[in-house]
Write a structure and sequence with these properties.
By secondary structure, the chain is of the alpha+beta class. The chain has helices spanning 2-5, 32-51, 56-68, 147-150, 162-171; strands spanning 9-15, 20-28, 77-85, 90-96, 102-105, 109-112, 132-135, 141-143.
């Protein structure tokens, strides 16, 4: 029973140096042990690229190509990868079919971060991902999440949803 309850949602963060942090969030197709193993493989491949000094485009390309190799089970993962400069607020990011990432603040609300050209990882080798760039303003918050949040059900089996999630964020300090 426990193996069927294991999922493939993931979050990863690493301090790269005194100014930059690496962030990643994603969701693997399926459930159970196969999804968990595919998730661990994805994180490991991304970290390997980071430790080798790859830029975001190289990370996305290398990880996608590696996940496509021998993928007889046709598994895939959504991903959002970013490198944030905590001194300047500048960050670069890649979206590979992941839910919209939110940026905003309590006063003005939250909106979707502009999407970049990207696809689910593990489905098409040699895809060229587009790197997006943005500078966060003082007081802004970057919200990374998976559909586990917005697709959570209440006791009446109603989904939480995107709009209620954004409204809830606006109430938090």
């Amino acid at each position: 029973e426990a193996a069927r309850d294991v999922g493939g949602d993931f979050f990863d963060a690493l301090v790269l140096d005194e100014r930059r942090i690496y962030l990643a969030v994603g969701d693997v197709s399926g459930k159970g042990m196969p999804a968990s193993l595919f998730m661990v493989k994805t994180i490991t491949l991304m970290r390997d690229c980071i430790f080798r000094g790859c830029n975001l485009g190289e990370i996305a390309s290398n990880v996608n190509n590696s996940l496509c190799e021998g993928n007889d089970s046709n598994m895939f993962t959504t991903v959002f990868i970013a490198i944030l400069n905590i001194e300047t607020g500048e960050f670069e990011y890649i979206s590979g079919g992941h839910n919209p990432i939110l940026i905003g603040n309590q006063k003005n609300g939250y909106e979707d971060l502009e999407k970049t050209q990207g696809i689910l990882m593990g489905v098409m080798p040699d895809f060229l991902f587009t790197v997006g760039k943005r500078t966060m303003k003082p007081g802004e918050t970057l919200v990374l999440y998976t559909d586990g949040v917005t697709e959570a059900e209440n006791t009446a089996q109603e989904l939480f949803g995107d709009e209620p999630f954004q409204k809830l964020l606006g109430t938090l300090p």
